[in-house]
Design a protein that fits this description.
The structure is a homodimer. Helices cover 58% and strands 8% of the residues of chain A. Chain A has a two-stranded antiparallel ribbon. Strand 3 of chain A pairs antiparallel with strand 3 of chain B. Chain A binds a DNA duplex through helix 2 and helix 3.
DNA sequence: GGAAGCATGTAAAGTGTTACATGATTTT
DNA sequence: AAAATCATGTAACACTTTACATGCTTCC
C-alpha cells in the first residue's frame, strides 16, 4: 500500500507539518524563508496539495479558527510519517533540475559585440551578487537558529545555498575580468 | 511590435537555429549535448514551439525530405534575429530556478538516525560525482571544440557546469566526512 | 536481416504560475 | 483610520512530461 506516489512538493509539505508548521499559509511562508532556494512553492500549490494529502490519509486536518477568521491546521498521520521516512531513506536518485536563463544567454553570447558580451557577463555577476546578499540576509540567519532547536541539517542546506551563490558570483567576476583583459581564459 | 513575448525555450530554439542546427530533431539532440544542464527540452516541446515561432514569423520553414523520409528545416528571419539579439542585450533580470530533491531530503534529515543521515549524504555525494563524470564525458568534450569554430562562450558555459558539479561533489564529501567524524562543522 | 538512429508529431495527464477574490485581525 | 498581515481558496492559463504512433535510412 505504501507506494511512492507523492512528488517532492508533497514531501515538502509533510516535512514542514512534522516540523510543527501547521497551516497552509505558514508552510508557504516557511518555504519562502528556507527551502525556496532549492524547492519553491506557492499558495496555489500548497492548498490543493494539502487537500490531496488529507484525501489520501497522509495528513489529518481540523478547523481551528482564530476569532472570526477561518483557519485549518493539519498534522501528519502514521501513514504520512511512514511515507516521509521512506522517502528520506529511499535510494532512488533524487530529481535535479536547473532553469537558468542567464547561462542560456551566456551560451549564445558569441553573437554579441565584445562590449555587449562584457555587459551581459557583468549583469550576470551582479545578479549572482544580489542573490548571494539576499540569501545571506533572508535565509541564512533563520537557518542559524535551527541548531538551537536540535536540528543541524537546515543549516547545512542553507550553507550550501550561500556557498553556491558566492561561488557563482566569483565565477562570473573572473570571467568578466578575463573578457576585459581581452585574453583567452588561462587553461 | 518587437515586444518580448517569447520565453527562454523560444530563444533557445532561435539560438540553435542561428547556429546552423536546422531541424527539430537536431535541436533536441544538440540541447542534450550542450545546454541540457541549465536548460533542458524535449521533442514534445521543440516541435510545437517551432510551429509557434513560424506562425509568428520569427522563423521560416521549408520541407527538405531526405529520400522518402520527411524533414523540415528552419531558418531565422529578420524578425527572429532582432528578437534574439534584443533578448541577449536585455537588462531584464534572467529567470533562475532550482529544483533539487536531494537538498530537500537533506533539509529534513534531522528526522533520520545518524547512520541513515550519513547514508543519505553519501548518496548525494555519489549522485554529484556521477553527474560530474558524465558532464565531463558527454558535454565538455563537445564544448571544447567550439573555440575552433570561433565561439568561446559555449565552452565557458560548459566549464561553469563542470566546475559546479565538482564543487558540489566536494561539498557533500566534506559534509559526509564531518558527519562520520561525529563532530560539529568547523565554522 | 536486424538494430540503431533519423525524423516528426499527437494526446493525455500532470504540474505550476498568475491573477483574482474575500474577509478578519493586528499593528501603526 | 489605514496599512500590513493572516488566512483560504478558485479559475484560467501556461508549461512539461510521458506515452504513444509512425515509418524511413543507414550501419553492422
Amino acid at each position: 500500500v505504501s507506494v511512492l506516489r507523492l512528488n517532492p512538493s508533497g514531501y515538502l509539505i509533510l516535512g514542514m507539518l512534522r516540523a510543527g508548521i501547521s497551516t497552509g499559509y505558514a508552510i508557504k511562508r516557511a518555504v519562502d524563508l528556507s527551502t525556496r532556494f532549492f524547492w519553491a512553492t506557492s499558495f496555489a500549490q500548497v492548498y490543493p496539495e494539502l487537500a490531496r494529502l488529507e484525501d489520501q490519509g497522509y495528513i489529518a486536518g481540523r478547523d481551528e479558527p482564530r476569532g472570526g477568521r477561518p483557519r485549518k491546521t493539519y498534522r501528519v498521520t502514521k501513514k504520512g510519517e511512514r511515507a516521509l521516512d521512506d522517502w528520506l531513506r529511499s535510494s532512488r536518485v533524487p530529481a535535479f533540475e536547473f532553469r537558468d536563463e542567464g547561462l542560456l544567454r551566456l551560451f549564445f553570447a558569441d553573437a554579441l559585440s565584445d562590449d555587449d558580451a562584457i555587459a551581459l557577463v557583468k549583469r550576470l555577476r551582479e545578479a549572482a551578487e544580489h542573490a548571494d546578499r539576499s540569501f545571506r540576509e533572508d535565509i541564512l540567519p533563520l537557518a542559524e537558529s535551527a541548531p538551537a532547536q536540535g536540528m543541524r541539517f537546515p543549516l547545512d542546506a542553507a550553507r550550501l545555498g550561500a556557498d553556491y551563490y558566492s561561488w557563482r558570483a566569483k565565477w562570473f567576476a573572473q570571467l568578466q575580468a578575463e573578457l576585459e583583459a581581452g585574453g583567452r581564459p588561462k587553461s
